[in-house]
From TrEMBL:
InterPro entries: Rhomboid-like_sf. It comes from the Archaea. This is Rhomboid family protein. The keyword Transmembrane applies. One of its GO terms (cellular component) is membrane. Its main location: membrane.
Amino acid sequence: MSADAGRQAPPDSDSPTLRGLLASVLAAVRSRPPSELGLVALPLPALLVGVNLLPGVEAWSFSLATEGVFESRWALWTAFASSFVHADTVHLADNVVNYWLLVAVAYPLSVVAGWRRRLLGSVAVYLAVVPLVSAWATVVALGGLTDAPTAGFSDVNSALLGYLVAVWFAALAAESGRSRSGGPPGVDPRWSVVAVFASLAVAYFAPSGAGYFPPLPAVGSLFAVGAVVAAVGLYAAVGRPRVAELDLAPERELLYVTGASVAAAGVIGSLVLVPFGSNVFAHLAGYVVGFAVPFVGVLVDGTADRGGG
């Protein structure tokens, strides 16, 4: 979505509508090179479908009887490959749809934030790193308790969920920076860390549908304290987020509402109200890595700005 695509609302529009949002999205799609849109939307789903058509691919699931990710070459391979394997067609379709839903909001927000290259770079890191990190986290949490196999792309989708939280704040910071005519941004993208700490606190406080992941109030309290400390520090350093003066077009406002809704639903669906049998620890690992990768870029950007770079 181009930076100005959201302003193509009808002149008499004074409130966000679904029709206006769809018109804005279509205008934005036409403004982007088809190759770029195809690169975001098609290769990964095609890879997932192709892998699951291979004969004997179910053997690539990662066994929790394994003592460690680096126990053997086979253990290392299945730790990586299991993220691209699915139990059945419904499992595969669920992860493909979730991927499309996440990138449908993460991509236009990345364009607004000037993060198109960062999105592609982050996804490349997720594909290489998240499967191994999620397998390691699962072994640490559940290893020795069961020999069940684990598989699925939900750990990488959870990484995209973490990216979505980071880019949502970055896009809003870019909007506020432009609206304030070169002055300090009304929203600092570092506020995203408060949202992530708060969401992790909720995940550890709330009862989960997965019986092996009970509430852990002590851990939830640590994340809650982290959220408060981060919020106090940011308030002292940059002030509260200021968005009242942005004067965004209704469809652009709806983009942010949609992005926040997808992020909130994703956190609830992958970390809180989790169906029994889902690998919550893989989701947690993916979410944390998914946020940390772009957030490092946010910190680097801030250091460059303070250094005049």
